[in-house]
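Thread title: Can someone regenerate the structure for this chain?

I was given the following input by a collaborator and told the matching structure tokens would be attached. They weren't. Posting the sequence so someone can regenerate them.
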Amino acid sequence: MDITPTTPGLQEPAIQVQGLEKSYKELRVLRGVDLTVARGSIFALLGSNGAGKTTMVKILATLLRADAGTARVNGFDVTTRAADVRESISLTGQFAAVDEILTGRENLVLVARLRHLRDSGAVADDLLRRFSLTEAANRRVATYSGGMRRRLDIAMSLIGNPPVVFLDEPTTGLDPQARIEVWQAVKELAAGGTTVLLTTQYLDEAEHLADRIAILHEGRIAVDGTLEELKRLLPPAEIEYVEKQPTLEDVFLALVGTTADKDNR
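Best answer:
Regenerated them for you:
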């Protein structure tokens, strides 16, 4: 019997996963994943295409059921307390889920009303201000840039103040300027106390944003630590007496390998 209190303790991790497994017929995607995400932090989950990042997020968001292992989000078991988990989270997928016919403000008001919040207009105006969209509030979203749409999408995900936000490859397809805009929005989330689990294929994104980084490879967490801890896994190279510290890309490729490596197996 799950006897978790309705209001989880603030000292408990925002996300705690132990021995998580998931297969699709003969394909084993997750093979015993363990990880812990502290409250109010940005945690980056890296991995190649097909590594299982999205599967992991879907399990944590109660959209998929794991074959084995346990996962808790905001103190609630994702299987036995799925409804409580859903009230605690927001999930933003790889593509902005905004209505292009509506204005930015109308998108926010609509979601606030669907969540039965009082004074939906004030909620919308506050989020527009937080995400620097006030000047574009009354423009149709079809006229927004990619970065503006993604910022609006993240703003919509925050309606109701969920303590945990999942961002599944939030900057896919964005230009460099739009990526920087989204990075700033993510930093502001964490600064406000929101826990962010971010999946990405962009190593510089993890370097720029994350408090901790985990690399998911062949269904397991290969490494998990701060950027400095991961860099120390590889020895620095010395060229003409100038020490060169390994980058996150060096660590990632050393652990996961390259496409050419896999083709030669």
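Residues 1-7, 259-265 have pLDDT under 50 and may be disordered.
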